[in-house]
Amino acid sequence: MISPPLCPGCGTSRLVPIAYGYPHFTDELKRALEEKRLVLGGCEVRDEKWACPSCENRYPELESGAQ
């Protein structure tokens, strides 16, 4: 598995996936949010698929070569 790239905006954090929709707050989801392995994007799906948990910038795609 290839790690997501560092945030191009701040360079301090790895990008994490954005989950859209109304979440069911399971213990697993709560842990992922606490550990900053996932960001909630809200109910309206947008083009952004990746977010930086440090600076909160959002990006539509990973830089080429990383997935």
Account of the 3D structure:
With about 70 residues, the chain is of the alpha+beta class. The protein has one domain (about 1-65). It is built from one helix and four strands; from the N terminus they run E-H-E-E-E. The protein has one helix at about 25-35, and strands at about 15-20, 40, 50, 60. The protein has a four-stranded mixed β-sheet with strand order 2-1-3-4, with no helix packed on it.
Topology:
Layout: E1 16-20, H1 27-34, E2 39-42, E3 50-51, E4 58-59
Parallel strand pairs: 1-2
Antiparallel strand pairs: 1-3, 3-4
Portion in helices: 10-25%
- The tally of helices reads 1
Give the helix/strand class. Answer: alpha+beta
> How many domains would you count in the coordinates?
1
The counted number of beta strands is 4
Distance between the ends:
8 Å
Unreliable stretches (pLDDT < 50, length at least 5) are none
How would you sum up the global shape? globular
The strand line-up of the biggest sheet is 2-1-3-4
Q: What's the alpha carbon Rg, rounded to whole Å? A: 12 Å
The proportion of residues in beta strands is 15-25%
Mean pLDDT reading: 88
Give the SSE order as H and E letters. Answer: EHEEE
Q: Major sheet: size, sense and barrel closure?
A: 4 strands, mixed
